[in-house]
Amino acid sequence: MNKPLKLIKIGNSTGVILPKDVLAHLNLAQGDEVSVVKQADGIALKSADPDFDQQMATARDVMDRYRNALRELAK
Question: Which residues pair with 19 in a beta bridge?
Answer without folding.
Answer: none
